[in-house]
Every structure is written in C-alpha cells, then in structure tokens.
Amino acid sequence: MIDIPKKIPIFAKIYPEYIMEITPKGLAALVGGTVEGDENILLHGFAKIEEAKAGDLSFIANPKYEHYVHTTQASALLVGNDFNPEGEYSTTLIRVADPYATLAQLMRYVESLKPQPEGIEQPSFIAGGVEIPEKTYVGAFAYIGKGVRLGKNVKIYPQAYVGDGVEIGDDTVIRAGVKIYEGCRIGKRCIIHSGCVIGADGFGFAPENGKFKKIPQTGIVIIEDDVEIGANTTVDRATFGSTVVGEGTKLDNLIQVAHNVTIGKNNVFASQTGIAGSVHIGDGNMVGGQCGFAGHITIGNYNEIGAQSGIPKSVGDRNRLMGYPAVDYRQFAKNQVYIKNLGKLYEEINKQKDNEATHS
Questions:
Q1: DSSP string spanning 121-170?
Q2: In the listed set 113, 139, 166, which residue is the last one of a domain according to the structure?
Q3: In CA terms, which of 92, 120, 135, 339 is 20 to 30 Å from 286?
Q4: So what's the pLDDT on residue 116?
Q5: Per annotation, catalytic residue among 67, 70, 193, 259
Q6: pLDDT score for 86
Q7: Are the beta carbons of 76 and 24 closer than 8 angstroms?
Q8: Is 259 annotated as catalytic?
Q9: In what order do the strands lie in the sheet with 76-80?
Q10: What is the pLDDT of residue 16?
C-alpha cells in the first residue's frame, strides 16, 4: 500500500472538495519511482491515455499502447522501468516497477478521500435490538431485520434489504437495492453492488406424480472477507449447509452461483458466467465471460478458462482451457483452424468424387 500522508492533496478534478495538486517529483517520491522530463508540472487527475489533457496522469502497462507516448496530451505517464519507446515524445515519464499496480494503489487512495456517509436516514426500518455501531450508515428505505449483526463502519445504501439473522463484517459496503436473505453471513471489507441477491432459494425440485415439487432450501450463503460481487449477480443459498464464496474472490456483474457451490480464495469470474449446483472450485482461478460449469464437478487451482467455455467435467490444476467442451487452448486453436478450412475440404472432396465419377 502506498503511504500518502493525508495532508498531501492530490487530484482536485475528481474530488473538488479537496484542494489537490501534486508534481511528478512528489508523486515519484511517494511511489518509489523516478522522473524523466518536467518534474514540477502540476497533476490534477487521472485519464485514459487517448483522452488525457494537460494536467492529467495516465499510464502504459501494455506494449500495444506504447505508440500513445507520441500523441498523448497527458502531462505525465506511469510506465515500467523497462519502458523504452522509439522516437521523440514530450510527456513526462514516471518510471515504476509495475505501472498498473501503482495506478491502482493511487486510485484506491483517492477513493478513500471521498466523504463517507454516516448515520441513519429516514424513512428506514431497523428491527428492535439491532445494534448500530459507530460510523454505520443506513440509507433511506433500507430494511434491517431481527437479529442482524453489523460490524463497524458498515455502509447500507438506500432500498437494501438485510434479512433476519444476517451478519455483516466491518467496513463492508452494501449498495442500493441489494437483497440479502435471512441467515446469510457477509465478511469484512466486502462490496456487494446494486441488484445483487444473496441467499435466494437454490433451484431444487423433485419430480413427483408428474409434477415438480419444491425441495426446501434450508442452508445459507457465506461470503468471506474481501469479496466483491458485481451488479445483478445472484448467489443461491444451499439446500443444506452453505454456499461459499471464498476470501478475496471477485465476481463480475450478472453471474449465477447455484446452491451448495464452494468457491475458494482469490478467484476472478467475468460477467455472465453460470456455475451449476454443488460445484467445488479451488483457489486462484481466472474465468472469462459467459462460461458455464456443469453441476457436481471439481475445478482445481490456478486455471485460466477462456470466455464462452463450457466445463462439463472436473479439471485439475494450472490448465489453460477454451471452447465447448473446453480443451487445452493450443488444441482449441488447432480446432478453429480445422473448422475454418472445412468448407475448402468439403469442396475438394466433392471435386474428387466428380473426377472419380467422370473416369469410372
């Protein structure tokens, strides 16, 4: 974490309630970088490299954006220590070990400067006996049920529903319109974005006399510490036991996590992924958008799964998979070449048949 003293102002354009200006020299001192160019210009805000103007700070972490160093209007760029562009450029460079990580740290700091809401807005409902710790925020039209336990500095935004017996850890943010069903447990420093539903019934039905009868879903959802869940994502409660999203895992918008799924630590899942019931997923996996996981399978650790992949069976550790059914990414690339050439192959076979018919 970058240690930026609170008294040092930074990036006034983003938060005008602060008087924020810093020079590349001052910024480099804070992040352990070195400056090439004008070290005394004033920086006021962040911007995309292709849209930046004078006073903006941007960055280059991907080599394919290197050419922007010649055209950007940004006053300064965070770049890697090994950044070595060809030709002339006028912008100031701030060299750091990891420009993307450094920018993220700076942005988190700026975010921390934003004023934080506190207190209880009306109208809202808080059941009797629920303790409201110091620095808690409860927005208008929020509902907090019986037996809810809130940690310190919890922020519950307007129109959120926190059902009976829910536990929410310190410094967690529940955004507007989130619905947390009864009995679920949310850890510390989590962010649950608008429209999320945590703890709805799992999709459990049993055929009986030609009809599907509901199987009561009596379990809960456990969200561990430092989890972020994107807008309109759903995590279903377990049939019995717990559906678990592990520490540090990040779920994008519009994801479905079914009942009795267990997700380990520090995974990332992109939008529109669906995880069927009773899937067990390990740690450190990276999953692209629109992936589908069949039920009752086990996914190991540190896998990379490409977008729109289908995972019909269990997977071990450290694989790179793509396609449906998912295969090794190198095999997937070969298969795509084969598919691309099927039309030509079909024409050649038909020509061969015609030639054989002519000479028979």
A1: -SS-EE-TT----TT-EE-TT-EE-TT-EE-TT-EE-TT-EE-TT-EE-T
A2: 113
A3: 339
A4: 85
A5: 259
A6: 86
A7: yes
A8: yes
A9: 34-36, 92-96, 76-80, 56-59, 45-46
A10: 54
Phi then psi for 199, rounded to 5 degrees?
95, 15
* CB-neighbour burial class of residue 129 (10 A; exposed 0-12, middle 13-18, buried 19+): exposed
User: How many contiguous H segments (helices) and E segments (strands) does the chain have?
Assistant: 4, 37
If asked whether residues 55 and 195 sit together in one domain, one would say no
Backbone dihedral region of 358: left (phi > 0), alpha (psi from -120 to 50 degrees) or beta? alpha
Q: Looking at this protein, which amino acid is placed at residue 203?
A: F
Phi/psi at 24 (5° precision): -55, -35
Local structure of residue 115 (DSSP, 8 states): P
What pLDDT shows up at residue 20?
Answer: 58
Output the six-digit token pair for 37.
């160019």
Residue 193 has a CB neighbour count (10 Å cut-off) of: 20
Segments of the chain scoring below 70 in pLDDT: 1-20, 360
CATH number at residue 252: 2.160.10.10
In the structure encoding, which two tokens stand for residue 38, read together?
Answer: 């004008």
Task: List pLDDT tens digits, range 195-210.
Answer: 999 999 999 999 999 9
79 and 129 share one domain: no
Is-above-0.70 flag for pTM? yes
